[in-house]
Amino acid sequence: MNCTRIEKRLFPYLDGRLREAERRKVEAHLAECTACRLRAEEFRAVGGLLEELPRIEPSGAFDLRVRARVAAEPQGRNWWVWLRPSPRVAFAASLLLMLVVWTASRRTDVDTYPHGTPATAANVAGQDEDFQAIKDLPVLEDYDVLSNFELLPDLPQEQPEQNSKM
Amino acid sequence: MSLVPAPLPHTHQPQLSASQRVGYNVEVMARSDVQLMLDVKAGDAQSFELLLHRYRTPLVNFLFRMVRDRAQAEDLAQEVFLRVYRARKDYVPSAKFTTWLFRIATNLALNSMRDRRYRQMEVSIDEPVSVDAEDGSEKPLDLADRRPGVEQHLVEEARRAMIRRAIEKLPEKQRAAVLLHKYQGLDYREIGKILDCSESALKSLLFRAYEALRVELAPLVASSGGYAEKGRLQ
Q1: How many angstroms separate the Cα of B128 from the Cα of each of A24, B134, B157?
Q2: Is the CB of B198 inside 8 Å of chain A's CB atoms?
Q3: Spelled out in words, what is the top-level CATH class assigned to the domain B1-123?
Q4: Among the listed ranges A55-64, A85-94, B25-34, which one has the minimum average pLDDT value?
């Protein structure tokens, strides 16, 4: 056994948790290695120093505080808890109801107007203006046809009255 | 059925056993931790009380040595018991109860120490202090007191303060390993599970921790003469 391998066996050795064969190997190494022997002795001394620290007792109110915190814990959870009236549930339900009502009323408006546009007064007025704009359209259409019709010159001209020959 | 028994009047008689204080019979006292925890799971309030009495002092001491603040140690210990209570319904005895308990405690302590480190960056740790053995609070040294025995008391307190500081200087995981090994008497496998490391890694951790402690405590080690004595560390 060498100094490196001692590292993981030193604590079990000092704690008395090594098997007999292992313990003899460690002791053989400690007998011939001064550095490891000194380290083992100092580790044991450190262990003794740590024992000098006194134990403390929990304060008198410790148990009471634990009991109070445990008592404040919910004793059980079941689905009926969610049905108990609470401000949060009532608020959420109100919001949901308002949303449903608003959505339903909006769908009704859309259904009553065929092109997907709400039938408001402004839309109706705009429609009248459009109608006024196009109601004279046949007149304009006749003018364009008459002014640009290429066959017009080929049409037979009306003969002047007899008195013009004279 | 409520798991919380009626509050008991506190007694300042430490010689009373837990069974005497809470009125348990011998049969209940003899139950293993795992059996008690299974009883808590089944809704038995007395079993929780007994676990509380079994582990309140070891937990508070472990946490006090970890965080070095008594009030905080008690708060953390309460939190440990509360988490045990909360986890009762899901408890499965897959490991020793102490492993589970001290794993919760160690994690809480490490988190608390990390949080506190950020909050107390500006506080000097070099201020000379002494630690009162009874309440664990640190007080400035009172060197003007000339009563008989006071000098010896101060020497002992200075010695303890040196040991505490040496432990405090250890990295968190090494500190937890030393405390669980030295004061809780847990075996290597249990400590390894608590600290989430292998048994082999734990032995290396302890070795490095004791190397650091023997350097820090060299004056005391040299004067103790304890290393001539053969025996276990514990």
Answers
A1: 46, 19, 12
A2: no
A3: mainly alpha
A4: B25-34
In a domain? residue A60: no
Q: pLDDT-based confidence at B227, cuts 50/70/90?
A: very low
- Between chains, do A60 and B12 touch, taking CB under 8 Å as contact? yes
**Residue A164 within any structural domain of the chain:** no
A128 lies in a domain? Answer: yes
- Out of B57, B164, B225, the one facing A57 most closely (by C-beta) is B57
Residue B73 to residue B82: CA distance in whole angstroms: 14
Q: Does the residue A163 lie in any domain?
A: no
Closest residue of B to A10, CA-based?
A: B207
pLDDT at B7 over 50: no
Q: Kindly list the residues from chain B whose CB atom is less than 8 angstroms away from the CB atom of residue A75.
A: 2-3
Counting the structural domains of chain A, the total is 2
Q: Which residues of A touch B60 (CB under 8 A)?
A: 56-58, 62
Please, are residues A32 and B199 in contact by the beta-carbon 8 Å criterion?
Answer: no
Choose from A48-52, B6-10, B122-126 the range with maximum mean pLDDT.
A48-52
Q: Which residue has the higher pLDDT, B133 or B93?
A: B93
The CA–CA distances, whole Å, from A77 to A9, A82, B5, B89 equal 51, 9, 20, 11
pTM: 0.64
User: Do A92 and A143 fall into the same domain?
Assistant: yes
For the stretch B73-110, pLDDT in tens is 999 999 999 999 999 988 888 888 999 999 999 999 99
What residues have CB less than 8 Å from A152, skipping those under 6 apart? Answer: A146
Which among A47, A64, A67 has CB closest to B233? A47
Where in the sequence is the domain holding A94, given as residue range(s)? Answer: 88-147
Q: Token digits for B30?
A: 């003899």
- Decide: A23 and B223 in contact? Cβ < 8 Å: no
Q: Where are the domains of chain B?
A: 1-123
